[in-house]
Amino acid sequence: MSTEVGTQLLHCQTAKAIWVEARSLAEASTKARIMVYKSDLHRTHKGGMKMEKFLNNMKTISDQLAFAGAPLPHDELVFHTLNGLDAEYNAIVVKLLDQTNLS
pTM to 2 decimals? Predict the structure, then answer.
């Protein structure tokens, strides 16, 4: 246990209180991680990356969200991935977005 967490648990008088407080701290940390992952999802663009690297990055972020308890629906992953592509892919992106089912 880190010193910071230990300090926050010092005021607890019972094992149950320690457990409740530790769980609360973990949940807050998880919510913060989810927000970071969602931000990463919005900020990730292909840019100069090779396509394989870009797609792996998007999949990794999706996996991290799922592991944190906030799985990303497949159609949202597809949307964010297409959104992260450069202008040279616009024709393909438009065609894919015109499809009714992205999953």
Answer: 0.71
Instruction: Place 102 in a pLDDT band, splitting at 50, 70 and 90.
Output: low
What is the residue-wise DSSP string for the chain?
--HHHHHHHTT--SHHHHHHHHHHHHHHHHHHHHHHHHHHHHH---TTS-HHHHHHHHHHHHHHHHHTT-PPPHHHHHHHHHHTS-GGGHHHHHHHHHSS---
Q: Tell me the pLDDT tens digit for each residue of 45-71.
A: 999 999 999 999 999 999 999 998 899
CA dist 65 and 33 (Å) reads: 8
Q: Helix 74-83 to helix 90-98 angle, to the nearest 10 degrees?
A: 150
Q: How many CB atoms sit inside 10 A of residue 63's CB?
A: 13
The answer to whether residues 72 and 100 touch, using CB atoms and an 8 Å cutoff, is no
